[in-house]
Amino acid sequence: MKILITGTTGYIAKRLIIKLHEEKHELTCCVRDLNRIPDEIQSLGNIAFLKVDFLNTSNIQFPKDIDVAYYLIHSMTSSKGNFEAKEIQCAYNFKALVEKTTCQQVIYLSGIVNDNILSTHLRSRLNVEKTLASKKYALTTFRAGIIVGSGSSSFEIIRDIVEKLPIMVAPKWLNTKTQPIAIRDVISFLTNALLKENLYNKYYDIVGPEVLTYKQMLLQFAEVRNLKRHIITLPILSPRLSSYWLYFVTSTTFKLAQTLVDSLKVEVIGKKSNINYILNIEPISYKEAVSLAFQKIEQSEVISSWKDAISSGVFKDQLSKHIQLPQFGCYKDVRFREVNDLNYTLTKIWSIGGENGWYKFNWLWKIRGIIDKVFGGVGLRRGRTHSNYLEAGDPLDFWRVLYANKTEMRLLLFAEMKLPGEAWLEFKIVKNRLYQRAVFRPKGLLGRMYWYTVFPFHGFVFSGLINELTKK
After folding, report:
1. Is 106 exposed, middle or buried (0-12, 13-18, 19+ CB in 10 A)?
2. What is the DSSP-derived secondary structure letter of residue 385?
3. Cβ-based neighbour number of residue 112 at 10 Å
4. Which helix (H) or strand (E) is 441 found in, with range?
5. pLDDT tens, 339-385?
6. Comparing C-alpha atoms, which of 229, 209, 208 is closest to residue 218?
7. Are the CB atoms for 461 and 364 separated by under 8 Å?
8. Residue 212: beta bridge partners?
9. Furthest-apart CA atoms within the chain: distance in Å
10. Among 200, 224, 265, 295, which is least packed by CB within 10 angstroms?
């Protein structure tokens, strides 16, 4: 079967592509940046990649002979003023392209929208669903609530809260009811629905077997981890205070925290249907989903993470346009050391950050992360998706991986922390010599003042770092 998939670098699509490839389907995957194709997908072979930005589809054509298309484009981090309009525009452009093909079915993963009052995020999902409806192809919509799996935003946020706070003073929205579903069940619904004519032009809520409050989810998560946790809910925390609470306790950005709090006030309970019977799927329980997620984490088999998404506003275009260090109008800290053991140094570079830390003066990196968090940045809590593997687009504490090529022995990071300018950090080995370059392009007087303020720390922070990378 010939299948087109959007949102290739997203949390759901990465897992779906691997599953469909195992089932021997012929796949075309849409990406904005051909340099951001995940290695685990590119290495599969027999997959075509189509470069397309759905906000601007001029001169773009889909393959004419596709049978099914998946629409998996969502935004939760764009600025509140325009993300709804952008989502509608993306859906409209996608629909126009699909209608020119032989596509019989479009499958869309949406959100549960049964409450009388919808959040901005859920209202946008519903409007996208209406936009995708067509007389040229059949639309099948699956509406899901909280998705639980290794790397999912809900899983990682709950993990942050439970593992860091023995006693929680939390907002009253923890009493809101929801119906979580395991990521493996979501993928099963998406794949089992292919060309099922009895699902054409219909929508279904897909949910797990339990209705839980967010408080119950936290406590059950703690049970799986063998942790004792106590939760006190307060009615006085406003949505804004709740957003700050979520932002400082977890690894989420403040914009995403605001969006989540806006959504968490709405009950997300699915309508009953016979979809489980039709597709022969029996969703697993929440505790089982959490347990399976940790099995994947412990085995370093996390395929995708919500943190892979680029922070809103950092890059307006493709990552590949930023992989060359700027030369003019920049301050630079350049150091080099001879490499005694190439494999040792490369392994250390590719394992930097996250739980492994920054090798030398790690406490200073932590302080910088706290300062960034206070000023509304991402801080260090994002960590990294894999402990010793990196690819373009990966998060790495408050950096974003722009380029990672072990064969070329080059790793380039871009700072997503709050800065009065732009910052890069490059590690590159040339003829058994490691070059470490920190480059800062200031914005105005404040940027220049910032550089000279932190410059005294570079002498031991960056020197200590490169020494640790090459000391064997």
Report:
1. buried
2. S
3. 25
4. strand 433-442
5. 999 999 999 999 998 888 898 888 888 888 888 777 777 777 677 77
6. 229
7. yes
8. 178
9. 68
10. 295
